[in-house]
Amino acid sequence: MVNEIAWRQLKEELDRLNVTLVAVSKTKPVEDILTLYELGQRDFGENYVQELVAKQPSLPEDVKWHYIGHLQSNKVKLIASFVHLIHAVDSLKLLEEINRQGAKHGRVIDVLLQMHIADEDTKFGLAAEEIESICTSVQRNKDAFDHVRICGLMGMASFTDDEQKIASEFRSLRETFLSIQQHYFGDLTHFKQCSMGMSSDYKIAINEGSSMVRVGSLLFGSRN
Ligand SMILES: *Cc1c(COP(=O)(O)O)cnc(C)c1O
User: Fold this and answer.
1) What is the pLDDT of residues 159-194, one digit of tens each?
2) If you measure from the C-alpha of residue 220 to the centroid of ligand 1, how many angstroms do you get, rounded to a whole number?
3) Which residues does ligand 1 sit against, CB inside 6 Å?
4) In this structure, are strands 43-46 and 212-215 parallel, antiparallel, or unpaired?
């Protein structure tokens, strides 16, 4: 069930702090998305391509769709015409495919690079050096990447109750973000997003400088 009160409180708090709220609607029906849309929510996050492609035509055109899951290169074409921001780019090959699909659709697709900050092997993402290496490749070859735009970094903290640990993982993302921004983006204002924080840890993430949180169960109820 959609928790309208939780949405209102969170949205107000985040607006005040200038943090974008991405409402993560994976596994939830179109009606639940519409409920929040009617209250004013526009940014929604999904992490299964088939599900996103099924829901998108049923919802208003001004919904901003965030693709937050692991994305396979061969599926980029299915979302390239409408996706607002791809959060979890974790290889140069994927970035090249997003660029190719962006060119096909005559648009520039905004993306974030996913950094591996948790100590669990199961989570996808890049080391800081790999992020630097991708940014170097893009910088050296700007013409080959003119249909994709790197707008920041994304990360997921370890699944733990240890708030100090979560905070230090988010801090490492933020520090890498600042260093990449300084070295590669200078005063290019589009490189501005630190996508970090979910239902259980968004407060810690905001404390550590998050600009965008991805919150699902707190708004839509728990998933099966
Ligand atoms: C599901 C998911 C979220 C939201 O998780 P909640 O705990 O429901 O807030 C955030 N980010 C990613 C990448 C997800 O897959």
Assistant:
1) 999 999 999 999 999 999 999 999 999 888 999 999
2) 11
3) 24, 26, 47, 68-69, 156, 198-200, 214-218
4) unpaired
